[in-house]
Every structure is written in structure tokens, then in C-alpha cells.
Design a protein that fits this description.
Distance between the termini: 45 Å
Structural class: alpha/beta
Helix content: 25-40%
Number of strands: 10
CATH architecture of the largest domain: 3-Layer(aba) Sandwich
CATH class of the largest domain: Alpha Beta
Order of helices and strands: HEHEHEHEHEHEHEHEHEEHHH
Number of helices: 12
CATH superfamily of the largest domain: Periplasmic binding protein-like II
Oligomer: single chain
Length: 328
């Protein structure tokens, strides 16, 4: 634990110093430098992005600054403004940005490019184990209160699609309460929320923390309902949360996933930086990056291009994948 804390503090200090230098020179990336948007400090993307940036700077002369942000949607918006040049985002959010849909209606991100698919993000809906809700159908029928994440986030849009696509429930027909991370944790603990939706690795730190005090039940998304959702949305994948992942969750639970995409601006992210990043990620830095948390071991070259869809590869990433014989 002490080693982890020291490592985290070192990463934050390095990121802060690099950010200070970058601020003095302006936001735009030049030569061998770029800024990467991740997630909040408590999310799985912040340590992942920090580890990738650290390994790139260890093995190459490129400099990547990993910054804590509000997550995938904010990262893409900041990239559009050239305040960041690299970002982590969800497969579905990336698709919407590239095509100018939903969250990005009227704001088509033409310069968005794909670098790599990293690991799945698992959708986990928690309720109190002592509650009357055993299924999503019971939850929807009761018009219970649900927090899908922050207002206007990719999490919120994905949970809307899950309620409508799997359970034929318009999110407006339940008590829909988008809140920030701290707000939803407090509201749940004060029993002002019946359920919270998460989109992250397993086990989720937020659920581990809250279930330590209040045993939880994870509502399943499986069977015909999951099949219907998968038929409607290309971003949906299958997952099973192992039994006893959380206090109170004694059985395995079926659910769905989307992917974590590493993306970059095709104009403002230097080709050298992206080449160095991808070649380090799947080369000398891989073992260190895979050791960051429970889902980083899923980062492997054989799934690197999953979820790319019609989004073009960044020139630096394309160079690497051509060397590996993965693209022509």
C-alpha cells in the first residue's frame, strides 16, 4: 500500500511539473510533446494514462503529460480545442464525436483518429442489498431514483441507451438524477438514491467503498434483454462480474461493456509522439502498464484495433501497426 501511495504521488508530481512547463509554452503540442486527458483521480483511466505517459518518457524522448479530467466526453471536447492532443474515451462516445451525433450533435470531430483499444469498461448498477429491487424490471416498474453519472457525460448517454434498449424504459419515466461522483456517493449513503450506475473496471473502487458500509446487489443485464441491446448498439459487449466482487454480491452477475479507446487529434498530435506511445504501449512498457490495476492485464496487441470502426488511424499509430503487419 505504501509503495502504491508513493508511486501515485510521484506520478502526480511529475504530471504537475510537466503541465507547468507545458502551460508556459502554450497548450499546443510541438515536436515531441503532447497532453493526454484521462479521468478523475479516482477513475481507472488516470492511473492507466499516467502509466502510459511514464513509460513513454522512460523509453523514448517524447513527453506526454497525463492530466486528470472529467472523462471521455470532456477529453474529446478539450482535444477539439487543442487544449489536449491525446485522450482516453469510450467506444460509443468516440463514435458519436466522429459522426457528430448525440452528445456531439452539430460538432462533428473530423480530425479524431484512433490509436488503440485498451480494455473493457463494465456497466454496473448497484442497489442496496436490503432494497426490494432484484431486477431492472422491478426497478423500472417502481420508478425508482437512479444516478447514471455526471450530467451530460458519456456514462449518462450509455445508461439511457441501456434502459431504453434492454428494458423498454424511457429514462424520463424513472427518477433520473445525474450527479458528480462525490454527490452521488453522498446521496446513495444518505438513501436519497435507489441506485447508481458505474462504467469502469471490476472491482470498481466506488462500489468497494460504499459496499463496505452498505452491502450491495448488482442488477443484471443479461439474457434476451442483453441480446436486444447488442443487436441495437454496436458498442455493447458481454461481461460477467465474478461472485463476491463486492460485499453482499454473492453470485456472478451478467452485464455489458463498452471499450476504452486511446485516441488522438489527427492534426495536432505529433506523429512521432503517437508512434512512440503506441510502440511503447505494446513494447517495452507493456508489462509495467499491465500491472496498474485489475483490468490493465487485458491490454494486449491482439485486441488493439477492436472497436476502431470507421475512425481513421493516426499516422503515428498506422506506422506502428504496418510494421506489425496488422494493417496494409
Amino acid at each position: 500500500m505504501k509503495r502504491s501511495i508513493v508511486l501515485a504521488l510521484c506520478l502526480i508530481l511529475c504530471a504537475s511539473m510537466a503541465f507547468a512547463n507545458g502551460t508556459a509554452e502554450g497548450n499546443a503540442a510541438t515536436g515531441n510533446k503532447a497532453i493526454m486527458g484521462t479521468s478523475s483521480l479516482g477513475g481507472s483511466w488516470y492511473p492507466t494514462g499516467s502509466a502510459i505517459a511514464g513509460q513513454v518518457m522512460t523509453h523514448t524522448d517524447s513527453i506526454i503529460t497525463a492530466q486528470a479530467t472529467g472523462g471521455g466526453t470532456e477529453n474529446l471536447r478539450l482535444m477539439m480545442q487543442n487544449q489536449m492532443q491525446i485522450g482516453l474515451s469510450e467506444t460509443n462516445v468516440t463514435f458519436y464525436a466522429f459522426n457528430g451525433e448525440k452528445l456531439f450533435e452539430g460538432q462533428k470531430y473530423d480530425n479524431l483518429t484512433f490509436c488503440a483499444n485498451l480494455y473493457p469498461l463494465v456497466f454496473q448498477a448497484q442497489v442496496q442489498k436490503a432494497s426490494k429491487f432484484n431486477t431492472f424490471k422491478e426497478f423500472c416498474a417502481a420508478k425508482a431514483s437512479f444516478c447514471p453519472g455526471s450530467p451530460g457525460s458519456g456514462d449518462e448517454v450509455a445508461w439511457q441507451e441501456i434502459f431504453e434498449g434492454a428494458f423498454d424504459t424511457n429514462y424520463k419515466d424513472i427518477v433520473w438524477k445525474p450527479l458528480s461522483h462525490n454527490e452521488r456517493v453522498m446521496a446513495y449513503q444518505d438513501r436519497l438514491l435507489d441506485g447508481i450506475g458505474h462504467e469502469t473496471a471490476v472491482p470498481a473502487g466506488a462500489i468497494l467503498e460504499s459496499s463496505a458500509q452498505i452491502p450491495v446487489r448488482i442488477l443484471a443485464i443479461g439474457g434476451a434483454e442483453r441480446d436486444k441491446l447488442m443487436a441495437k448498439y454496436a458498442w455493447v459487449g458481454k461481461w460477467t462480474i465474478p461472485a463476491n466482487s463486492y460485499n453482499g454480491q454473492e453470485e456472478a452477475v451478467e452485464t455489458v461493456t463498452t471499450g476504452t479507446c486511446l485516441v488522438a487529434d489527427g492534426v495536432n498530435a505529433p506523429e512521432k509522439v503517437i508512434y512512440d506511445m503506441v510502440s511503447t504501449l505494446y513494447g517495452p512498457g507493456l508489462k509495467a502498464i499491465q500491472s496498474v490495476h485489475s483490468f490493465t492485464p487485458y491490454i494486449t496487441l491482439d485486441i488493439a484495433l477492436d472497436g476502431k470502426g470507421a475512425i481513421p488511424l493516426h499516422a503515428g499509430a498506422e506506422k506502428f501497426y504496418k510494421e506489425k503487419g496488422m494493417v496494409k
